[in-house]
Amino acid sequence: MANRLSQIATRTGDDGTTGLGDGQRVPKDHLRIGAMGDVDELNSQLGVLLAEPLPADIRELLVTIQHELFNLGGELSIPGYELLKADAVLRLDQALAHYNAQLPRLAEFILPAGARSAAIAHVARTIARRAERAVVALAAIEAVNVAPRQYLNRLSDLLFVLARVLNRANLDGLGGDDVYWHSERLKKVAEADVAVGNESGAP
């Protein structure tokens, strides 16, 4: 890989291009740069989640994931290079099985809500899905290893599961359970609006 950064404000990107890890320069709107940016955003969002009160095991897992995402971003920055190994995907599979086993089966859709840590995990989940889509789009035009796509796919699933776990951990006192989507609630709201309209003479 390239040498570590010794300065940040290089001004070399003023022309709308940026450098990859192998030294070539590409437009900043290149699909590879978009994928790298989404992975960077995902890692940053996990940093926000790590600033919250968390169970020790989940904190340790997320720190490991941050390092693996850095490897994933590094791999994307060097076409043809491999940094993210298959065992990283396996670790996510194992974590999914471990935390899923603690949860009741879902009978209804849930909302991205509850404890603050759970809500942040849901935000990270949506960014992981966007990063996955970006990697898939890149792979349609250039060669990309399979591990990054698989990793992001598993990670988005894991973050959904962790959000449910964090709601039950209830470390900030604002969670306790999943927040369910209620279609009946929307139906009642609509019926109430109709009733109000009838009373007011509205058409």
TrEMBL record:
Residues 1-25 are annotated as: Disordered. Residues 8-165 form the Cobalamin adenosyltransferase-like domain. Its EC number is 2.5.1.-. Transmembrane segments: none annotated. Keywords: ATP-binding, Cobalamin biosynthesis, Nucleotide-binding, Transferase. The keyword Aminoacyl-tRNA synthetase does not apply. GO terms for molecular function: corrinoid adenosyltransferase activity. Pfam families: Cob_adeno_trans. Residues 1-10 have a biased composition (Polar residues). InterPro entries: CblAdoTrfase-like, CblAdoTrfase-like_sf, PduO-typ. The keyword Zinc-finger does not apply. It catalyses: 2 cob(II)alamin + AH2 + 2 ATP = 2 adenosylcob(III)alamin + 2 triphosphate + A + 2 H(+). Belongs to the Cob(I)alamin adenosyltransferase family. This is Cobalamin adenosyltransferase. It comes from Ideonella lacteola.
